[in-house]
Specification:
The complex is a heterodimer of chains A (390) and B (300). Chain A is mainly beta and 390 residues long. Chain A contains 3 helices and 19 strands. Chain B is built from 7 helices and 17 strands. By secondary structure, chain B is an alpha+beta fold. The radius of gyration of chain B is 20 Å and the shape is globular. Classes of the chains: A mainly beta (390), B alpha+beta (300). Chains A and B meet through helix 1 and helix 2 of A and helix 1, helix 3, helix 5, helix 6 and helix 7 of B.
């Protein structure tokens, strides 16, 4: 008995320490956050041996993103995003078979490649409740040959002391095409003034397993209707596409250096064009302190594989009802390797990012076919960004 | 020094914070939110609290509990075991017969009728639910939640980058870190006044504290005098009668929660309290009803 009493202090202390630390519900931001990010996207040149016409140089895109997050009246925030893109280069629009090897025509005569700009503006207000959030988005996008308007609603509900969060969103968009030089080809002329609509819904649940682990699973459905072809590629695609996605995201916190987050994500995709894909993504977000300064290094690796749409062919005839030679509808696999480095200070973060994307026909591994896809691209992105809180 | 004061958990909550004003403002806000969250979740005065839900379903059906509540119940269970059943979170039902504003003592019959409802050992609880087997039973987190909240707030403040500060939730103290002097170059302990049980507005002693938590249990907090005798709010769950040996017990340990439980257990130990606290090897300061002071905490 005496012994047991002597243990009261240690027994209570141990038990008190076992009480879990609380996860906070999503709270309204307190600071304005102003962000700017510059990204340069550079496609590798098409292989010269396989280009029969046009320019070897493919797309290069410069992206400027501005974002401002403004909290107001304690329970609200407004996020304003502006994206300005300039795109130049050529993209393949016809491939043909010659002596057993497929060849590419690059669009745009040499030296007079495509020059385009795109501007996106979106406004996303959000309301923070005690056990959740409700947000909306209105987005407009304009290119010289394309206009898009989208609206969406999203929300979260936190349950069981914020250990479980239900996530949901719904959005619709309406796009209109006005291809440049519509008079130069029948497919472009046919696309002029065409519209497409999309409807998307996502439902997910995220669960905190314990102090160190969390998982989110979700199901998404998108239905696209209208003109879904690419007027520059001579494709004729079905006017309806239904897409299903299943995603899981796993987070594991480890105590390396100043703490690190291990991310492992998987996404399954299946659609009514018989395209099925798998995406595996792993990343490590490693925090560290060097001479009292805080840094984060985040290497990541992604593997993507898909099979071809049922109407894909590298050199489509014009007898079948639907046809497409767009490499994004072919069977291929892709690997992305990237690294982000961040420096944090009291009121902000500077981020540098680099990633390299490579795709190959034979990396599809499963459901691969022998069809060649000379139009597959490799690209590199370099980005530099700054987030400032005030 | 920045002071953030607010009323919650039926008492005054005061945060003394030093350091970067931006971090302080953030920490103060998070802290108040956290105290209010815990109050809302565990207060028996609120119909939407988990405590009310458990009590409402007494004798009817089990109630699902989350991880945090389970951990608090496990903690209360350890308290029960370590105090040989004296620290019992089902003893809140004595409130029905002990009305300290009435100036009247309950009858023996009333006490006999309540005693069977005070029975932590009969409570069925597991990893995901709790069930009070008899209609009329209650659990009361009041004896642990304020102390727990003080620890939690100190943790939150440290996470928010506060290194110097003191959390005071109605006398339950948790140190975030030692205080800085005016020139911000020397660390000094926080000085905690211990109420004089005979004159609770005055300090009988001043305790220096640089870390951990300090809690005090006293017979002056809620009580009534009947025929010249004092009846206080700490009630022996075996007899149904208030304790009356200790006037005040203060304990210091690594956590305010543990200090508070040890102080209350000591009160329940009556004349054995001093010996029991000595056995714990924990710094304490005890005043008995004859105003004799004992303990290992050295007042300044």
């Amino acid at each position: 008995m005496k012994n047991k009493k002597q243990n009261a202090l240690s027994a209570l202390t141990l038990s008190a320490l076992a009480i879990p630390s609380v996860t906070k519900a999503e709270v309204a931001p307190e600071n304005n956050v102003l962000s700017y990010r510059y990204t340069q996207y550079e496609e590798a040149d098409a292989p010269a041996a396989r280009v029969v016409g046009g320019d070897l140089k493919r797309f290069s895109i410069d992206v400027h993103q501005f974002s401002l997050l403004t909290p107001f009246r304690d329970k609200y925030s407004l996020k304003t995003d502006v994206v300005y893109e300039t795109l130049s280069g050529a993209s393949p629009w016809i491939s043909q078979e010659n002596n057993g090897q497929t060849e590419l025509f690059m669009s745009g005569a040499s030296g007079t490649g495509i020059q385009e700009t795109r501007t996106d503006i979106s406004l996303s207000p959000k309301r923070y409740f005690k056990d959740g959030t409700l947000g909306g988005t209105v987005a407009m996008s304009q290119e010289n040959d394309y206009k898009s308007l989208a609206v969406g609603l999203d929300g979260t509900i936190e349950m069981y002391n914020s250990h479980t969060t239900l996530v949901g969103s719904i959005s619709i968009s309406n796009d209109q095409l006005n291809p440049t030089d519509a008079e130069t080809s029948s497919t472009r002329a046919a696309a002029d003034g065409e519209k497409k609509q999309s409807f998307s819904i996502y439902e997910g649940v995220s669960q905190i397993i314990d102090k160190y682990r969390a998982i989110q699973v979700g199901f998404g459905f998108t239905r696209k209707t209208g003109y879904l072809s690419d007027p520059y590629k001579g494709d004729v695609r079905p006017d309806r596409r239904e897409e299903y996605t299943f995603t899981t995201q796993y987070r594991h916190y480890v105590r390396w250096l100043s703490g690190a987050g291990f991310h492992a994500d998987y996404r399954f995709y299946d659609d009514s064009w018989k395209v099925r894909s798998h995406t595996f993504d792993i990343a490590l977000w490693q925090n560290m302190e060097i001479f009292g300064e805080r840094f984060t290094l985040a290497p990541n690796f992604r593997y993507y594989m898909q099979n071809a749409a049922y109407f894909y062919s590298v050199q489509p005839g014009n007898t079948s009802e639907f046809r497409a030679s767009d490499p994004r509808l072919s069977a291929y696999g892709a690997i992305t390797i990237g690294l982000q480095a961040q420096y944090h200070w009291k009121s902000g973060t500077v981020t540098f990012g680099y990633s390299q994307y490579q795709s190959r026909e034979d990396w599809a591994l499963i459901d691969g076919d022998d069809t060649e896809t000379p139009g597959l691209v490799d690209f590199t992105t370099v980005s530099l960004g700054i987030d400032y809180r005030f | 020094m920045f002071t953030h004061a607010f009323d919650a958990m039926g008492t005054q909550c005061i945060l003394n914070l030093q350091g970067d004003p931006e971090k302080i403002a953030h920490a103060a806000r998070l802290s108040e939110q956290e105290v209010r969250r815990l109050e809302q979740k565990y207060s028996r005065f609120r119909d939407d609290s988990i405590a009310s839900e458990i009590n409402h379903q007494a004798g009817r059906q089990p109630v699902a509990v989350d991880e945090e509540t389970l951990a608090l119940l496990s903690y209360a269970n350890i308290c029960y075991q370590q105090s040989d059943g004296m620290f019992d979170i089902t003893s809140g039902v004595f409130r029905r017969i002990w009305d300290f504003k009435s100036g009247r003592l309950p009858t023996d019959q009333q006490i006999e009728s309540i005693l069977p409802l005070v029975s932590w050992s009969s409570v069925e609880w597991s990893e995901d639910h709790i069930f009070l087997p008899q209609n009329g039973m209650e659990v009361d987190f009041g004896g642990i939640v304020k102390e727990f909240a003080a620890d939690r707030v100190a943790d939150l403040c440290r996470q928010a980058g506060i290194e110097h500060g003191l959390v005071n939730l109605g006398g339950d103290m948790a140190v975030i870190g030692p205080q800085l002097d005016e020139e911000n170059d020397h660390e000094a302990p926080w000085l905690i006044g211990i109420r004089d049980p005979r004159s609770p507005e005055d300090a009988a002693a001043s305790i220096p504290l640089t870390e951990g938590g300090l809690a005090t249990s006293g017979y002056y907090e809620r009580f009534m005098m009947v025929d010249g005798r004092r009846y206080c709010h700490i009630i022996n769950p075996k007899t149904g009668w208030p304790v009356d040996w200790c006037a005040s017990v203060s304990v210091v340990s690594s956590q305010c929660l543990v200090s508070g439980s040890l102080a209350t257990m000591a009160m329940l130990k009556e004349s054995h309290s001093q010996e029991w606290l000595d056995d714990q090897g924990v710094p304490y300061l005890l005043a008995n009803k004859f105003n004799e002071w004992h303990g290992t905490l050295k007042p300044l």
